[in-house]
Amino acid sequence: MAPDLDDQNLAFRTVTRSSLTTSTMLRSGSRLCTQISRSSRCLARLNSTQASHAANSSSSSSTQEPRTVSFGFRTVPEDAKESLVKEVFNSVASKYDLMNDATSFGVHRLWKDTFVSSLRPGRRGPQKCIDVAGGTGDIALRILDYAREKYADRETTVDIVDINAEMLKEGYRRFKKTMYHNTPQVAFHEGNAQLMSQFPDNTYDIYTIAFGIRNCTSIPDVLKEAHRILKPGGTFACLEFSRVGNPLLSTLYDQYSFSVIPLMGTVLAGDRDSYQYLVESIRKFPPQQEFAQMIRDAGFATGKDEDGGAWTDLWGGIASIHKGVKL
Ligand SMILES: C[S@@+](CC[C@H](N)C(=O)[O-])C[C@H]1O[C@@H](n2cnc3c(N)ncnc32)[C@H](O)[C@@H]1O
């Protein structure tokens, strides 16, 4: 059994099988970053690792090329991405809410409200929900508030899952100030969206993931696990930054993202590189249509391939809500 995360008597249930498997997968990535407390230093080391990868592959043609994925605009070995992402969120956790409000002028709150109210949790009686990459608990709290305020439902539950213990601690702190603290309505789990073996098949009515999936190494693996743990008829719902259709808005948004957000990261959080990564990762995420197809490939039914069908654009596509139903 993995050691309990909870150094403050927190109700975190730690992952058993999945953390072991993940830790095996991450061993090489972790080695890369163990001595590094800040993502910026980790990124610097990553550059030299990439150089050495290149040197190794040119000196030995028999060596198999490592599988690679994007980490923002960089291409990194697949097994290094998770630890790099962890470093980013370790670094931003304590300033995450402040930075979210500053960089989006608070708009992320409206998007999250729209996201949760579109799901109408509690409408058909108490529901079992899971919020993956749920870190700060923003979505989980909205789900429970919505069910209680609209339907006087105090039995809907949310399991919050995140790969990063620091982000979970921020969420726990937030929940501590609410009526849901120490109730069966909420539980925190450290775990990987790609490997949810601690959660049984056909368990949940609603699966949410907000601004999390683009940080995962394998989107198909996340979708596969979401499909497995949802009950037949259950809903997959993803809120994520997406593609802006209008060229003028797209140019303005690009300029804002690439100049203002990393600058705010430097000024408010003392961490330019993490915010640079967050902006870059948005551009690497598949556009609406492509992501909708990935959701269907995982076995979900979606609406038509258009805004208002398989997805709903928010603010011209700056963010987008995708949904799928497990048949
Ligand atoms: C941008 S934050 C979003 C947090 C929250 N959902 C929100 O909307 O405010 C992304 C979260 O994804 C988590 N994350 C990244 N990769 C993950 C993975 N493979 N499995 C689970 N969580 C992951 C990070 O630790 C971080 O807490």
From TrEMBL:
Keywords: Membrane, Methyltransferase, Mitochondrion, Mitochondrion inner membrane, S-adenosyl-L-methionine, Transferase, Ubiquinone, Ubiquinone biosynthesis. This is 2-methoxy-6-polyprenyl-1,4-benzoquinol methylase, mitochondrial. It catalyses: a 2-methoxy-6-(all-trans-polyprenyl)benzene-1,4-diol + S-adenosyl-L-methionine = a 5-methoxy-2-methyl-3-(all-trans-polyprenyl)benzene-1,4-diol + S-adenosyl-L-homocysteine + H(+). It comes from Coprinopsis cinerea (strain Okayama-7 / 130 / ATCC MYA-4618 / FGSC 9003) (Inky cap fungus). One of its GO terms (biological process) is methylation. S-adenosyl-L-methionine binds at T136, D162, N192, A193. The keyword Transferase applies. It comes from the Eukaryota. Methyltransferase required for the conversion of 2-polyprenyl-6-methoxy-1,4-benzoquinol (DDMQH2) to 2-polyprenyl-3-methyl-6-methoxy-1,4-benzoquinol (DMQH2). Its EC number is 2.1.1.201. It is found in: Mitochondrion inner membrane. Belongs to the class I-like SAM-binding methyltransferase superfamily. MenG/UbiE family. One of its GO terms (cellular component) is extrinsic component of mitochondrial inner membrane. It is a peripheral membrane protein. GO terms for molecular function: 2-methoxy-6-polyprenyl-1,4-benzoquinol methyltransferase activity. Pathway: Cofactor biosynthesis; ubiquinone biosynthesis. Component of a multi-subunit COQ enzyme complex, composed of at least COQ3, COQ4, COQ5, COQ6, COQ7 and COQ9.
